[in-house]
Each structure stands twice: as C-alpha cells, then as structure tokens.
C-alpha cells in the first residue's frame, strides 16, 4: 500500500528529528557553518587581523568575522585604515570601494565544505531510512561526476535512494558553480594542469577534462571581458576628467609571456600616466593558435571535420612576424583604435627605449593632424649610465670601477635623481649631472663642489657647518674619473638630457605586467584564451582591486559570489593597501636615516663613497 501524503510528512519529520538529535551529540557534529561558535575566524590569523581596519570590532580587528553581528552600513564596509603613507593602490581601491559598498556577508553558510566520504556515510548512519524506518545502513556511490561537481547517491539496504548534487547549476548553462570557479582560479596562477596537481595531492577527484575546461573558459571569457572593458572605459573617462581634455598622455609597453624573442604570446598595454595609473587598453598578441594546431591532428583522418573546426573557431593568432615586433604592432593597434573605441587621442607617449614604436607612430600617424610627442621613460633612460660604465669597465679591466657593480649602480641612481629633481629645468639638470662627476673627482687639494647641494654632499655640508672634511676615502682615483669622463660628456649634454625634460616613468606598466604574468606564469603552457582570462583578471585587479572580481563571479554563478570569496578578495585588497603603506613608510624612514647616518659616519668609506646615498635626495 502506498503511503499517504501525511504518512510521508511524518516520516520526513522523524528523519529530521533524528538528524537533529545526532547533531547534538558533540562527537559526531559536522558543522555546516564556519566557526559560528568560534570567536576566531579560521580565515584570518590574529596577526593578520591586526593589519586591518577596525570599524565594527575594535578589539579583534576584523570586521569581517562571521561572529560579527553588528549591522554594516555603507560607511563601514570595505574601508581602508587611514594611514600616513599611502599610495596609488590605496587611492584606487578606496575609490572602488566607495562605489560598491554593499552588505553581502550575512549568508555565512554560502560556501563549500571539504568533507571525506566516510564522514558522509557516518552522518547517514545516524539517520533513519524514510522507507524501511530502520537505522540507515547502506552505500555511497557517485552517479555522475564533472570536475569538482558530482551527484552522490546514498542507497539504503532496503534499496531506497537519496541523491544530492554537490554544486549548483549556473544560469543559462549546465555548468556547475564550482567548475566555473576553477577557471577563475587562474587568479592564483593555476591553470588546468596546476589544478590536476592540486586536486591530486588533496585527494580530490581530478578537475574537468581538457575539453570541458576549454568549454568552460569559452563560457567565462565574455563576462570577464565585459567587466574588463567597463573598468578600462571608466579609467579613460577618469583620465580625461583629470587632464581636462580628450587628448591624453599615456605610457605604453609590451611584454612577453616567456623571456626572449621566442615567446608565442605577449601583450601590449596602454596606461594612463597619472599618479593612479590604470590600464586603458590592452591587446593580447599570439603567434600561434592552439585550435589550429590541435585540429592538425585530425586533418588527415577527416578533412571535413578539420575544416568544420577551422571555419567555426575564433582564431587566436593575430600576429605574424617576430616576437620582437609584437610590441610595436600591438601598441600601434591600440593607438589606432582609441578614437573609435573611446573618442580620445593619445598625444604624449611615454615609451621605453624601443626606438621602433615612435617612428611607426610618426610615419603612419594614427590621427589626422596630430603629431605624437615622445617622452622618454626616466628609468630606462638612466640605465644608459649603467650600460656605458659597464662597457668602460670591460675595456679597462684594471680600473677600480671594475668589480664595483654597486658603484656603477649608484652612478645610475644619482643620474636618475639628477634628472628627476630637475625634471622641468634643463640648465639645472645639466649642472646636477656634472656635479656627480665633479664631486667624485674631488680631492682635498682640488675640491670641486660648487654645483653640489648640501643635501647629498658631505663636503658642502661640512663647509656650511665650518667643519673639516677628508676626501681621501670618498674620491675615486683620477685615472678612473678620466676614463668615465666621456660618459658624462655624452649623458650630461643638453641634447641628451633634453629628451627627458618633463619626463615620466613607466613604473606602472612594469607593475601591471608583473601582476599579469603572475597569473599566467612563464613556465606554464597557456593558449591565447587562457592569456585572455589572465589579462581580464589582471586588468580588474590592477585597476580596481581583487574585489572587482566578485561581480564577475556573481554574474557567472548567479549567486552572491560566496562568503569566503568575498572575505578573501577583501583580504587581498587590504593586504595590498597595507603593503603599499609599509613600503612607503620604509622608504621614508630610510631617507631620514641616511641623513642622520651621514652626520655620524662621515669617515666611513662605504657611506662616504656614496655621499650620494640612494634615497638621500
Ligand atoms: Zn531503508
Ligand atoms: Zn586558429
Ligand atoms: Zn660635493
């Protein structure tokens, strides 16, 4: 006889009661929410928690703790601690946070649990089977598995089956939440092969197979790209507001996934040149296409299939020629499309030493009636000093400068400082560069400090204080100074220095590229589409912080992003702001210290040798 609906209801109640009872038994509790009873969140160590802003829970210092029941207001969500030394990251991230203040942290059970099968069976054994009404006793089997998702079937001895899936279906696709997250895991620099290793060691079934993974990447990419484009468009508008014009100063740089010119993939990026530099546009360049190469294997087996694949695919190859030409072509492409894409023109270009980009921009002007100005990158420019000195050191093996790499690096540093400090004044710039040579060539008999500044010159300082100064330890031998004099004649000339007048640096590009290649490491094989995923993630992280990835996850998985995803991204952003602060503070302390040290240790060779102490400016 079939059970009546009320019978069914009763049975369900019994099961529920049994479950509840067994959960009360402490030894067998399998907690379903994180550490609600535990005052310390497992996600943060106590030390880390001290780094963060304390708005809601001053004592513990983590406003994100699951036990924190204080209701959040837009003002105390995502705020960064006010600190004395802040930089561009803090500014960018705070600005993003102020736009997105939203409270999503209530659903503390919105996350995955890693649990061993034997514990699930144990849990079931503490329940009563709905059908046979005796203690459940049976088996657990996996009916269906797709990457980290699986469909579990608990079968009681009586034959009664209970099925559960371990991850939800995402909107507009049959893909599972957890597998989509596996693609976004590129954020950790882990691709498909990396996941296989990670899962292997964690004793978790292998991730989705190659085909499924590529399929998931293809599904995730359009959303990621849309968010990336929004971020870049917003950055363009911000740059226009800041400069009060739609003609922008930008820096441009290319980089390759692998060192050298054999790399198959590279990117070219244009960034705004303001203090809070952001990526405005970027192009991934590939010399080969993984689909084209993959399809070759079936070319001889089935010509039809091969052609179907080739005709259908979106080819990744967008660059012919050498890897070295990638940068030039890529940057040029970005200039060309700026009007069409953003209605802006890049009129001042801060580029590195690659002399090929500017001629291309000048010979094939991307804009009508506009000549693009090149401003040399100061960092790259000052490396000339190092290279010239190294060459001389090679020629003169016996000189004292040979083997003194530090000394040569210091000369580069002084040179850079002379340029940076006199950025807008060519006469002063020329004098300051010569002052380096004259200072180092000075002896007690022939002091030449007339162009020195007391800020870095021990002699001038001692003279001002009416003290004695001993040159013997600090000056380099005259033979060395004469040998390197031609370098100064060239690099301190008005013609050379004129190129960095009003200069700027490409530091921002370097820092962006390092984020990007940490997501797509050089030692990892990555087809173009994976580089695209990494480019999108890197642009989002660089421009707006890790938290800007949450809306992408929300959109793709149709949820609220997940409790620990939110917590994690917030944490990374806070750490980024904290480390920036720490670095700035250190630099400041060091600059102050070196002045002090110079006072006390004027006779110390190493110190005096570097009366132009790094960061003493
Ligand atoms: Zn049963
Ligand atoms: Zn192709
Ligand atoms: Zn001096």
Automatic annotation (TrEMBL):
Q: Where is the composition biased (Basic and acidic residues)?
A: 587-602
UniProt-listed InterPro entries: Mutator_transp_dom
Location of region: Disordered: 1-34, 587-617
Residue span(s) of domain Mutator-like transposase? 122-457
> Which PANTHER family is this protein grouped with?
SI:CH211-108C17.2-RELATED-RELATED
Q: What protein is this chain from?
A: Mutator-like transposase domain-containing protein
Origin species: Didymodactylos carnosus
């Amino acid at each position: 006889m079939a059970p009546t609906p009320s019978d069914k209801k009763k049975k369900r109640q019994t099961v529920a009661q049994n479950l509840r009872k067994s959960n009360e038994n402490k030894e067998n509790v399998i907690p379903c929410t994180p550490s609600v009873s535990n005052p310390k969140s497992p996600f943060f160590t106590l030390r880390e928690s001290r780094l963060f802003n304390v708005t809601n829970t001053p004592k513990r210092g983590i406003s994100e703790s699951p036990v924190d029941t204080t209701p959040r207001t837009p003002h105390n969500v995502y705020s960064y601690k006010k600190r004395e030394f802040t930089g561009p990251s803090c500014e960018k991230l705070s600005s993003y946070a102020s736009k997105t203040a939203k409270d999503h942290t209530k659903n503390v059970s919105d996350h995955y649990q890693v649990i061993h099968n034997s514990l699930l069976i144990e849990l079931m054994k503490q329940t009563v089977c709905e059908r046979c009404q005796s203690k459940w006793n049976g088996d657990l089997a996996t009916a269906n598995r797709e990457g980290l998702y699986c469909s579990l079937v608990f079968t009681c001895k009586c034959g009664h089956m209970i099925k559960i899936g371990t991850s939800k279906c995402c909107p507009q696709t049959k893909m599972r939440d957890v597998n989509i997250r596996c693609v976004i895991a590129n954020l950790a620099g882990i691709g498909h092969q990396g996941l296989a290793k990670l899962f292997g060691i964690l004793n978790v079934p292998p991730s989705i197979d190659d085909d499924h993974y590529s399929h998931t990447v293809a599904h995730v990419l359009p959303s990621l790209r849309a968010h990336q484009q929004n971020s870049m468009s917003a950055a363009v508008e911000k740059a226009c507001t800041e400069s009060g014009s739609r003609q922008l100063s930008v820096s441009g740089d290319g980089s390759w996934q692998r060192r050298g010119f054999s790399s198959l993939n590279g990117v070219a990026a244009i960034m705004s040149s303001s203090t809070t530099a952001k990526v405005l546009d970027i192009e991934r360049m590939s010399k080969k296409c993984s689909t084209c190469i993959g399809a070759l294997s079936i070319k001889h087996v089935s010509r039809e299939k091969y052609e179907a694949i080739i005709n259908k695919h979106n080819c990744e190859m967008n660059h012919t020629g050498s890897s070295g030409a990638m940068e030039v072509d890529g940057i040029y492409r970005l200039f060309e499309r700026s009007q069409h894409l953003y209605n802006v023109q890049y009129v001042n270009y801060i580029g590195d030493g690659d002399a090929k980009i500017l001629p291309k921009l000048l010979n094939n002007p991307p804009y009508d009636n506009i000549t693009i100005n090149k401003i040399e990158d100061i960092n790259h420019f000052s490396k000339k000093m190092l290279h010239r000195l190294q060459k001389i050191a090679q020629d003169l093996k016996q000189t004292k400068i040979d083997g003194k790499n530090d000394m040569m690096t210091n000369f580069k540093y002084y040179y850079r400082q002379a340029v940076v400090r006199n950025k807008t004044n060519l006469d002063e710039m020329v004098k300051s560069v010569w002052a380096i040579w004259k200072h180092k060539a000075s002896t007690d008999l022939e002091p030449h400090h007339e162009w020195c500044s007391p800020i870095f010159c021990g002699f001038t300082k001692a003279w001002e204080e009416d003290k004695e100064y001993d040159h013997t330890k600090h000056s380099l031998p005259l033979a060395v100074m004469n040998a390197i004099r031609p370098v100064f004649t060239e690099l301190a000339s008005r013609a050379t220095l004129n190129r960095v007048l009003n200069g700027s640096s490409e530091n921002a590009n370097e820092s962006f590229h390092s984020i990007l290649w940490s997501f797509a490491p050089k030692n990892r094989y990555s087809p173009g589409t994976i580089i695209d995923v990494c480019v999108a993630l890197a642009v989002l992280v660089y421009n707006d912080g890790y938290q800007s990835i949450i809306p992408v996850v929300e959109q793709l998985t149709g949820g609220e992003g997940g409790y620990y995803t939110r917590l994690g991204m917030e944490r990374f952003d806070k750490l980024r702001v904290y480390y920036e602060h720490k670095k700035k503070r250190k630099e400041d302390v060091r600059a102050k210290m070196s002045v002090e040290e110079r006072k006390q240790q004027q006779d110390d060779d190493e110190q005096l040798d570097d009366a132009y102490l790094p960061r003493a400016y």
